[in-house]
C-alpha cells in the first residue's frame, strides 16, 4: 500500500486492529463506513445544530432551504449521470428508483415537489428558488463537484459516494423532531420530503453498501470506497460552511445571493 493511502487511514482502523496490508472483512469494512458518519457527517456542523435546536431566525432558515434546494434538485442529475455510466442493465434498473423518488413518475409526485412544499411554508417564491439566482457560490461549487465526481470516477467510487445515505435516517429524524418542536411553520406539509426519505434512504443505502462490499476486492479498492464517502461528507459540510459564513458568522452575504428581509436596507 502506498504511503499516501496510509496517511489518510482513519484512526478507527487501528482500533479495529486491522493490518494495513490485508482486506477488511465485511463487518470491518461496514464499520469503517459507519465511523466516517460518526466523525464527519454534517449533522455535527454548528449550523445544523442551530437549525435543529431552534436557534436560527426565519431568514436564516429561508437561506438554508433555498440553498438546499439546489442540492435536492441536483440529485437526479447526479443519478442519471451515474446511470449512464453503469455497465449492466441490472445495475441501471436497480438505480432507476432513485431518480423516480426525486423526480416522480409525474413531476408532482416526486421528492423535489415535496421539498418545494417547504419552500411554500417558508414564504419563499418558488420561481425565485428554482431559478437558483440567489444561490451561494459555495453551494453551487460543492453540489456541482458532486455531479462531476460521478461523471469522472470509476463505478465503484461513484456508487460509494452515495453512501452518506447510511447516515441520513438519523439526521432526518433529528430534523423532523427539532423543526417540529421549535418552528410554527414545521407541519406535515412542510416536512413531507424528510418524512418520505425515512423510508427511501435505508433501502438505497442497503443496496449501495452491499454492492461496494461485494465489489471492493482489494484493500486499495476498499480505501477508494471510504475516500468516496469522505468526499461526499465534505460536499455536505462545505454547503453548511457557506451558509454559516454568509448568514450567521461573520454574516457576509456574497453579491447576488439571497438576502433575507431582515437584512435588507
Could you explain how this protein is built, in words?
With 265 residues, the protein is mainly α. The chain has a single domain, classed as Heme Oxygenase, Chain A. Helices cover 69% and strands 0% of the residues. The chain has 13 helices and no strands. Residues 1-15 have low confidence and may be disordered.
Quick summary of this structure?
The protein is mainly α and 265 residues long. It contains 13 helices and no strands.
For CATH, the homologous superfamily is named as: Heme oxygenase-like
N-to-C CA distance: 58 Å
Order of helices and strands: HHHHHHHHHHHHH
Unreliable sequence segments: 1-15
Outline the fold blueprint.
Layout: H1 3-7, H2 11-15, H3 26-40, H4 46-52, H5 58-85, H6 89-103, H7 111-121, H8 126-131, H9 137-152, H10 155-160, H11 168-182, H12 192-215, H13 219-247
Helix pairs in contact: 3-13, 5-6, 5-7, 5-9, 5-13, 7-12, 9-13, 11-12
Give a quick set of tags describing it.
265 residues, mainly alpha, Heme Oxygenase, Chain A, 69% helix, 0% strand, disordered N terminus
Amino acid at each position: 500500500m502506498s504511503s499516501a493511502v496510509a496517511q489518510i487511514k482513519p484512526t478507527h482502523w487501528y482500533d479495529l486492529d486491522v493490518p494495513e496490508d490485508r482486506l477488511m472483512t465485511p463487518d470491518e469494512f461496514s464499520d469503517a463506513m459507519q465511523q466516517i458518519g460518526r466523525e464527519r457527517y454534517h449533522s455535527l456542523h454548528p449550523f445544523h445544530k442551530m437549525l435543529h435546536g431552534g436557534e436560527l431566525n426565519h431568514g436564516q432558515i429561508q437561506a438554508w432551504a433555498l440553498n438546499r434546494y439546489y442540492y435536492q434538485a441536483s440529485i437526479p442529475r447526479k443519478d442519471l449521470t451515474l446511470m449512464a455510466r453503469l455497465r449492466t442493465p441490472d445495475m441501471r434498473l436497480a438505480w432507476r428508483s432513485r431518480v423516480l423518488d426525486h423526480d416522480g413518475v409525474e413531476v408532482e409526485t416526486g421528492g423535489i415537489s415535496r421539498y418545494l412544499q417547504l419552500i411554500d411554508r417558508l414564504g419563499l417564491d418558488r420561481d425565485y428558488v428554482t431559478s437558483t439566482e440567489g444561490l451561494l457560490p459555495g453551494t453551487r461549487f460543492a453540489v456541482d463537484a458532486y455531479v462531476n465526481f460521478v461523471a469522472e470516477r470509476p463505478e465503484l467510487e461513484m456508487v460509494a459516494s452515495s453512501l452518506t445515505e447510511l447516515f441520513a435516517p438519523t439526521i432526518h429524524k433529528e430534523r423532523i423532531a427539532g423543526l417540529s418542536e421549535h418552528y410554527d411553520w414545521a407541519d406535515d406539509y412542510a416536512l413531507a420530503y424528510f418524512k418520505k426519505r425515512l423510508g427511501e434512504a435505508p433501502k438505497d443505502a442497503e443496496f449501495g453498501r452491499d454492492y461496494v462490499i461485494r465489489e471492493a476486492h482489494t484493500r486499495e479498492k476498499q480505501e477508494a470506497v471510504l475516500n468516496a464517502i469522505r468526499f461526499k461528507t465534505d460536499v455536505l459540510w462545505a454547503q453548511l460552511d457557506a451558509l454559516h459564513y454568509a448568514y450567521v458568522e461573520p454574516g457576509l452575504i456574497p453579491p447576488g445571493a439571497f438576502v433575507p428581509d431582515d437584512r435588507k436596507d
